[in-house]
Amino acid sequence: MAKELSYVRQDMLAPLPAPTSDGSIGGWIRKNLLATPKDVVLTLIGLGVLALILPGALNFLFLDAAWFGADRAVCATIAQGGVQPDGWKGACWAFVESRFSQFIFGRYPLEERWRVILVGVMFVALLVPMLIPKAPRKGLNAVLLFIVFPIVAFFLLHGGFGLSEVETPLWGGLMVTLILSFVGIAVSLPLGILLALGRRSDMPVIKMICVVFIEVVRGVPLITVLFMANVMLPLFMPTGWTIDNFLRALVGVSLFASAYMAEVVRGGLQAIPKGQYEGADSLGLSYWQKTRLIILPQAIKLVIPGIVNTFIGLFKDTSLVSIIGMFDLLGIVRLNFTDASWATPVTPLTGLIFAGFVFWIFCFGMSRYSAFMERHLDTGHKR
User: Fold this and answer.
1) By the number of CB atoms within 10 A of the CB, which of 295, 315, 363, 373 ranks highest?
2) pLDDT tens figures, 204-228
3) Share of the chain above pLDDT 90, in %
């Protein structure tokens, strides 16, 4: 008879309790806020800071704020004797509500603002499918968004198709911010890729030109580039030719962003293992085939955070165009501070909070889309 195996279990183990779900609110708190004693201390400090500043912020922004009104009187505290000159308590959102259309369109004529709205609808209709990875016909979508749409938008906004002309000095507000950002992003990415490839080129002349351009542009502030585009660019034009101020700003912003984009892309190119280049060469691919099919897709995927970071910086830097007489969102908000009918101690702070919130919404959206694309492309980095 075979010897009985003493190490074989005869009874089944009792079932273990289900693991704590990290997806619940309690699980998230334990994992992110109370995981270690240090986390507990930092969480308590953070709660203490919030307890100090949050009530005052809520009172100023919402509870004591004035939301509607025709002038600055609605933003004052009403006492028995009337309006107190020094009785300003909360945010003056009535100022934002009164000037909201100007913050969006600038001084664009009221009867022609439907053109701006139409351009905005077209932009969203083309951008959303472009951002959805599984949306079909990406090539056609890209052609419509980056080639056809800018031409149509220019004629709609400036004048064409039988429409009256609206000079660019009348443009302003969020409209200018979005136009500068879109053109800067659309131009800086392909130009930055070409500059990065040129900097790594084996041809000395091409490499020298790209290096000089990148280092010179990155070595000066954007304000300097905008002044040079505004003052020096017309000097290179034939006699009698002029360049619109808005176009000068577009050129300056695009060139400035492309230099930074070139260095971001170059970092991705250097991160590609040498074996990828050798493998592409062994297949008999030409330089452009190797770059387009093998190298660039991997390099751009690796530097998505850097690319989006450059886009976010570009979006915020558009506020500097007020230096050359263009009024973006921040510029048009600050311009309205001089309106005597809304002159209160809280008007500037309220306007700046509004402008900052709008900038934050767009920047946060770009940041979240960047994280989504990283997960979709599975870059292998921990998030």
Assistant:
1) 315
2) 999 999 999 999 999 999 888 888 8
3) 51
3-class DSSP state for residue 88?
A: strand
Report helix, strand and coil shares of the chain as percent, to nearest 5: 70, 5, 25
pLDDT greater than 80 at residue 1: no
How far lies 68's CA from each of 71, 112, 179, in Å? 9, 26, 30
Q: Strand 172-173 to strand 82-88: parallel, antiparallel, or no bridges (unpaired)?
A: unpaired
**Least confident window among 17-26, 57-66, 243-252, 365-374:** 17-26
Cα–Cα distance measured from residue 310 to residue 262, given in angstroms and rounded to the nearest whole number: 10
Length of the chain: 383
Please give the Cα distance from 376 to 241 (Å, whole number): 48
How far does the chain reach from its first CA to its final CA, in angstroms? 60
DSSP state of 71: S
Angle, vertex CA 271, rays to CA 268 and CA 273, nearest 5: 135
pTM of the model: 0.84
> What is the CATH architecture of 94-109+166-377?
Orthogonal Bundle (1.10)
E strand or H helix at 9, and its extent?
Answer: none
Spell out the domain ranges in the chain.
94-109+166-377
Quote the pLDDT of residue 287.
87
Give the pLDDT mean for 183-196.
Answer: 94
Contacts of 289 (CB under 8 A, 6+ apart): 280
Q: Which residue has the higher pLDDT, 239 or 50?
A: 50
Q: Which of 269, 252, 273, 295 is nearest to 195 (CA)?
A: 269
Half-sphere exposure of 123 (CA within 13 A, CB side): 17
Distances (CA, A) of 3 to 9, 85, 315: 15, 101, 79
